[in-house]
From TrEMBL:
Molecular function via GO: ATP binding; ATP-dependent diacylglycerol kinase activity; metal ion binding
UniProt entry keywords in alphabetical sequence: ATP-binding, Kinase, Lipid biosynthesis, Lipid metabolism, Magnesium, Metal-binding, Nucleotide-binding, Phospholipid biosynthesis, Phospholipid metabolism, Transferase
Native source species: Actinophytocola algeriensis
SUPFAM superfamilies: NAD kinase/diacylglycerol kinase-like
Keyword Plastid: no
InterPro entries, A to Z: ATP-NAD_kinase_N, Diacylglycerol/lipid_kinase, Diacylglycerol_kinase_cat_dom, Lipid_Phosphate_FormReg, NAD/diacylglycerol_kinase_sf, YegS/DAGK_C
Reported cofactor(s): Mg(2+)
NCBIfam families given in the database record: YegS/Rv2252/BmrU family lipid kinase
Protein name listed in UniProt: Diacylglycerol kinase (ATP)
GO BP terms, alphabetized: phospholipid biosynthetic process
SMART domains found in the cross-reference section: DAGKc (SM00046)
GO cellular component: plasma membrane
PANTHER family named in the record: LIPID KINASE YEGS, SPHINGOSINE KINASE
Domain DAGKc: from-to ranges: 1-133
Length: 297
């Protein structure tokens, strides 16, 4: 087996860089040939992984968080090259979806080594943005993507505190948007606060925004929050960690294979935590588009 290990050293406030050597040593016990690649930016990651493709790889191992995994998905999608993730970032939602993967990155590496030796692989679905990238996790627009936009502009503080402050700032200026949703031939227009289109249950570091999403069923799970007040959102927040928010009267859920979302007063879409761009956005669920080491939960 020929493998490439792609490390994003800054992931997890530098944790990925600190453990990279140990991860590589352990991986070499399970593969025949290992090339290591260090990427400091998204552009580095894309360039170096495409260069590595010429080596005829069987496996790409990403050491980092969901942004790093997102770049690995772009490389491996629909190619037959398997993807594995060592969770060393702050979110780690794709790794969380795979059964039995420990949260500790070195324990996760040992788990991965066993899976490689046992030949444990499966395929999962991916989302594809029309004219744009693939995504393995959740595409969202509305309040949560506005929080991402604000947090990305902030230079202080670092880590999760930045998102806490961004949430408070966006709550203060909360406005519903007029949203158009077209799914599998049906068209709906309504005032909404946010929408999440999930291939997996989690985003934002373990929040089950689409709690019943299954990355192997050929369908997206859609969680839509209708026009909500600040009080409604604050009341809904505790249930987000358990998935109980879907029972709130302002929330509706559905399943679809293809969906287009438009309008909504300048909303921006994010997928796997990466900026996609302003609405409208059309996405399709592509069954069995990605080979992964391990199995789904």
């Amino acid at each position: 087996m020929r493998a490439a290990m792609v490390v994003h050293p800054a992931s997890g406030l530098g944790r990925a860089g600190r453990i990279a050597g140990t991860v590589a040593d352990r991986l070499r016990t399970a593969v025949d040939d290992l090339v290591t690649v260090e990427a400091n930016t998204v552009e580095d990651s894309r360039r170096l992984m495409h260069k590595a493709r010429d080596a005829g790889l069987d496996l790409v191992v990403v050491v980092g968080g969901d942004g790093s995994a997102h770049q690995g998905v772009q490389f491996c999608a629909d190619t037959g090259v398997a993807l594995a993730v060592v969770p060393a970032g702050t979110g780690n939602d794709l790794a969380r979806t795979l059964a039995g993967v420990p949260e500790d990155p070195l324990k996760a590496t040992d788990h991965l080594v066993r899976a490689i030796k046992d030949g444990e692989q499966t395929t999962i679905d991916l989302g594809r943005v029309d004219g744009g990238p693939w995504f393995a996790g959740v595409l969202c627009a509305g309040f949560d993507s506005a929080v991402n936009e604000r947090a990305n502009r902030m230079r202080w503080p670092s880590g999760p505190r930045r998102y806490d402050l961004a949430i408070l700032a966006e709550l203060a200026k909360l406005r519903a948007g007029r949203l158009t949703v077209e799914a599998d031939g049906d068209r709906t227009e309504l005032d909404a606060t946010q929408i999440a289109i999930g291939n997996i249950p989690f985003y934002g570091g373990g929040i089950p925004i689409c709690p019943d999403a299954d990355p192997a069923d050929g369908l997206f799970d859609v969680t839509l929050v209708r026009a909500a007040s600040r009080f409604d959102l604050v009341k809904m927040l505790p249930g987000l960690r358990t998935g109980k928010h879907v029972h709130h009267p302002m929330v509706t859920t559905s399943r679809t294979t293809k969906i287009r979302i438009g309008e909504a007063n300048g909303w921006v879409a994010y997928a796997d935590g990466e900026r996609i761009g302003p609405l409208p956005v059309e996405v399709t669920c592509v069954p069995n588009a990605l080979k992964v080491v391990g199995r789904t939960a």
